[in-house]
Fold this sequence. Notes:
25% of the residues lie in helices and 25% in strands. By secondary structure, it is α+β, with helices and mostly antiparallel strands.
Amino acid sequence: MRVKLIKIGNSTGIRLPKAIIKECGFSGEAEMTVQDGGVLLTPTGAGRVLWRDLFQSDVQQNPVREKGEWEW
C-alpha cells in the first residue's frame, strides 16, 4: 500500500488508514524502529498495567496460604 508523506509542522509524517490501525492493534502509541532500510511500527501493548491487576493474577495462580501452612 502506498501512502503520501505529509508535512506536520517541521516534521514529515504519514497517515495510517483506520483498517490498518485496527488490524495491527495500535492505540495511543507505537514502537518505531529502522530495520533493513525501512521503518517497522509495532504496537506497544495493552498500555499501563496496574499493580492491582498484577497482584490479582498472582493471587489466582498462587493463593495466599493460611497461618501454619508456610514451607520454609
